[in-house]
Amino acid sequence: MGGKDMKFRLFLLLSLFVWQACDTKDKGNYDYTPLNGVTIAFANEEANQTLEKGFDTLRIHPEIKGDIYGENEENYEYKWFFCSGKEHKHTVVGTAKDLEWPVTFKPGDYTLYFQVMDKSTGLEWIKSTGLSVFSELTQGWMLLGELPDREIRLDMLTKKADNSLALVENIFDNSEMHLKGARGLNFTGFRSGKQSITHLWLMTDDKDLRLTWGNNFLPVGEFHEIIEVEEMEASRETPRFYDMFPRQFGGYGVMMGMRSFNERGIVTEHAIYMSKLGYDGTETYPNPMNHYGDKKFFKPYPMAFVQLGTFPTGNILPLFYDMDEECFVKPNANYGSTATYCIKLADRVGDPFPWNQYKRTIVYGENLREMSSDNYCHCVAIMKDTEGVDINYYIYKFIPTKKNIYFPTGAPLDPTKKGCFTINKTIAVDFDKASHYMFLSSGNVVLYSVGATLYAYNYTYETITSMDMGADICCIDADVVFGTNVFWLATYDETTQKGELKYMGVGGNQTPILAVDDEVGFPVTMKIKDVEWKYGEDPAEEEPEEGENK
User: Which of 115, 87, 190 lies closest to 546 in space, CA to CA?
Assistant: First the structure.
């Protein structure tokens, strides 16, 4: 037998042995049960949608078919989610087959995932689609309020392309910071080409935050961290923000929304600062000036009295109020350049009221907008007696300064007293019990509220009108856009935790006439504390760097 034959026989014997061994051990069942396969489809019009934040709702009704179970929905579990971050954090927005999700994400492009799980096998199928979110929060009224637990919320009444108004809730995400105690908003105004010096401040009991102000409202940082002030010289406490001036003067035109873009001042809880802004928008506020050259700092009233005319540049001379010595004061030099301390004002015989108070104190102050010219915008202050059996209230009307119309480039004129009006308590009932005050810029009328009752008191003719608003009044705020005799009024019922934002006006000559615009009213679910107009083109804001100011 040749070598090749021997090898062939050995190969056959080995193959037979392997076959017998396999036949002996493999006794398995080869009757397979087919698994259910799932296909997911989105309608063309429901895939890759572009929706508006705060207004639109994302709706998708997927078609699901199984190879075995067909469209039997009881066999499946569903999950809709967005995936983000390096750790692929899932944000679940629905657990039903059909999705209905009010769009709350900030503007941007997102990927939405739809997961279907077969409960009988645990197998999962996923289909994705794109979502583009945009916002029209460029112009409108920001509404700062509080929820029952005092956590703040920021909504916005926005103006649509067809000039209709719509309410957008939760434009600022407070879900992680849980800020409480709404104190107010401060928007400096916007001027095209000057975005770097536009500020939006959110003031709360917990923190004072600067926010981005285009279509996103993202925290930039806390006041004492990003604004360089020498607060420790005046106080040992963390600086708290109260006023940045001058403020926007009104109107929503692109070019004329900012009162001044060369000069700026800040009032904190314990100090007053002034500065000339850098060409690149840098701001430094050294040397608190709320003293008389002796570095003995007085406590300032938390606002500056400053004209709100249209002049976009140049010096503005404000007045301040010394809460310790009860007097109005002015800077010692031109605003924003060399002013380093304050000067007390001189009173003259026959003046309608004193700059330096005797047994009187300030209750409320406001800057009016009755004229566009720098020369005629007034400021007002409500004062009251501090001693005596019969406590009276007064209204001071004055111009903190004005430019000489004959020499506009020369030195500003001195502050001017325009009038003093004693509140007639027999007519302006419960004026001393008011929770809110607000002046009309179009006439000598002061609004005040007591509980649910709104009063409009003409302090020259001593006439009054009242209106029951149905629930406690929590905010009265002048409207800087539509006119000088209109305003916003908000009510809130603590029991039902519901309120209403009303748009109102005052007419009449000698006797005020209150009117409510029934076509402009919005139910709200928070206690509104402040209303602030905001206009500005989106400056292509970026989010803070990861880990910064979070």
Answer: 87
Strands 57-60 and 49-52: unpaired
The tokens for 262 are 């060369």
CA Rg, the chain, in Å? 34
Are 190 and 200 in contact, with CB atoms under 8 Å apart? no
Amino acid identity, position 205: D
How does DSSP assign 168-198, residue by residue?
E---S--TTT--B-EEEEEE----TT-GGG-
Span 148-160, pLDDT tens digits: 999 999 999 987 7
Other Cβ atoms closer than 10 A to 243: 21
SS3 422: strand
Q: What's the maximum distance between 2 C-alpha atoms anywhere in the chain?
A: 146
DSSP 60-95: E--EEEETTTBT-GGGEEEEEEEEETTTTEEEEEE-
Provide long-range contacts, Cβ within 8 A and 24+ apart, for 448-457.
449/473, 449/476, 452/491, 454/489, 454/514, 455/428, 455/429, 455/430, 455/431, 456/506, 456/512, 456/514, 457/423, 457/427, 457/428, 457/431, 457/512
Amino acid occupying residue 334 = N
Q: Are 203 and 190 in contact (CB under 8 A)?
A: no
Q: Are strands 124-134 and 49-52 parallel, antiparallel or unpaired?
A: parallel
* Residue labelled with tokens 């992680």: 176
Other CB atoms within a 10 A radius of the CB of residue 105 amount to 18
The CA distance from 60 to 42, in Å, is 7
Burial class (CB in 10 A: 0-12, 13-18, 19+), 182: buried
Q: What is the DSSP letter of 148?
A: T
Token pair for 506: 């005052």
Classify 161 as helix, strand or coil: coil
pLDDT of 364: 98
Tokens read off for 260:
């001044």
pLDDT at 412: 61
Comparison of pLDDT for 409 and 368, the residue scoring more: 368
Element (H or E) spanning 6, and its range? helix 3-25
- Name the one residue in this structure whose structure tokens are 């027999």: 426
- Strand, coil or helix: what is 108? strand
Residues 369, 249: contact at Cβ < 8 Å?
yes
Spatial distance between the Cα atoms of 371 and 375, rounded to a whole number of angstroms = 8
How far apart are alpha carbons 203 and 182 in whole angstroms? 7
